[in-house]
Amino acid sequence: SRGGPAVAAAGDATAPATVDGAAPRSPAQASEAAPPLLQQSPKDLAILGLLSNRGLLVVAAAAGVLQQTGFFDDPRRYAWLGTWLPDVLPDVLPNLLETFDPTAASFDLARAAIFGAVAVAGFVVFTRLLSVGWVLMTLFGFTLRRRGKDFSTAYGLFTRVTATLPLRRLQLLHVERPFLARRWGFHSVRVETAGGGASNDRQGPGAARLWLAPLVASELAGDLVREAMPGIDPAGVDWRPLAPRAAGRVARRNAVLTVLIGLAVALVSPLWSLLFLPLAGLAAWIGRRSVRRSAWGFDSGLDGDRRAIFFRSGSFDQQESLVPIGKIQCVALAQTPFDRRWRMATLRVDTAGASAAGHRVEIPYLDVEIARGLADELADGVAETTFLW
User: Which own/partner pairs from 190-197 qualify as long-range (CB within 8 Å, at least 24 positions apart)?
Assistant: First the structure.
């Protein structure tokens, strides 16, 4: 269903309603009767599980449980790996240097490559299936409805959770665009409310970031953002790049750090340290790409007033966050010693109940003059806005 039905404006679902003279329904009953703005089918959630990496969390948790229970303390439980893996993954390079037999080394290399590819593919499939199961169990039947001036969500297979998202207390809206999901035409949307806790994935009491749409078609994501934050249009953002020198700076930093790690590895294994030479080039390319794909900007309404500040980042998995100007609690500038040398600064925008984890409006690698001017402009905009709690 590509993320459920189209997002449409809903009326006040809490108005009293009677059927054949029956008593008026409660707001909760009216909310349940309202047509859903978004409804996730099992197919949608299965796609979300395949496109996400939550299966790795299950594997990590299982490994931690096994470690705590002492499973790895008995070598007999995994001793068979020591006798089986050498037959499958021989030391190709040492054999080639000792025997100078290219034919035997080529056979061993091909066998090791096939085994490695099969092992990696099997692990990826296993973790993706775990991810599908996890998402189906936690978000089964996810439904988003309008409840008066608020949103309400309901989801869960075994434990059914119903949550209310007061629109007046939405502090930050976060759009996730993972690489695979973006290629398939899907986005995920979360919101952060005032007074949230420290969890990023749990919705309910104490949650910091709440699901607004676990999976929504790209063409509908903008409608959902406009529904959640009236007056803000993500399509009208005047995106601006980071400092022109930032790409080269990050590329050099990544390359130098990778080479230093390679030099440390060389103390143990000079042969393995050679792998860090191409990795340094790859790290430099990723850093340059990340900076060039990052941007910030404002959304201006029809009257020309700036309503929200946006920030997007990410080399492959892109993330975008926006904060309405009237919800800003604090604007700060930070400069490391390297920032001062490059005449750059990082602008941080804080909101009420903000959590430290997750993507935020924290814009790095700005020219210091632009960063100071932007901070003053945001401070003036906040001072002219009436804060609504």
Answer: 191/165, 191/228, 192/351, 192/353, 192/354, 192/355, 192/358, 193/165, 193/166, 193/169, 193/353, 194/169, 194/351, 194/352, 194/353, 194/389, 195/169, 195/352, 195/353, 196/353, 196/354, 196/355, 197/355
Of the candidates 222, 232, 182, 149, the one whose C-alpha atom is nearest the C-alpha of residue 52 is 182
State how far the alpha carbon of 313 is from the alpha carbons of 69, 158, 162, 287, in Å.
Answer: 40, 36, 32, 11
When pLDDT is cut at 50, 70 and 90, the band that residue 203 belongs to is very low
> Cα dist. 332→99, 308, 329, 379 in Å?
63, 17, 10, 10
The Cα–Cα gap between 207 and 215 comes to 19
Cα end-to-end distance, the chain, whole Å: 36
Which SS3 state, helix, strand or coil, does residue 135 take?
helix
CB within 8 A of 370, min separation 6: which ones? 243
pLDDT class of 87 with cuts at 50, 70, 90: low
pTM for the full predicted model: 0.76
State whether the Cα torsion 232-238-241-242 is positive or negative. negative
Burial 5-16 (b: 16+ CB within 10 A, else e): eebeebeebbee
In the predicted structure, residue 5 carries a pLDDT above the cut 50: no
What CA–CA distance (Å, rounded) separates 259 from 273? 9
For 285-298, what is each residue's pLDDT tens digit? 999 999 999 999 99
| Residue 344 phi, psi dihedral angles, 5° rounding | -130, 170
CA distance 317 to 81: 35
* pLDDT tens per residue across span 324-346: 988 898 899 999 999 999 999 99
Identify which of 211, 215, 214 has the alpha carbon closest to the alpha carbon of residue 203.
Answer: 211
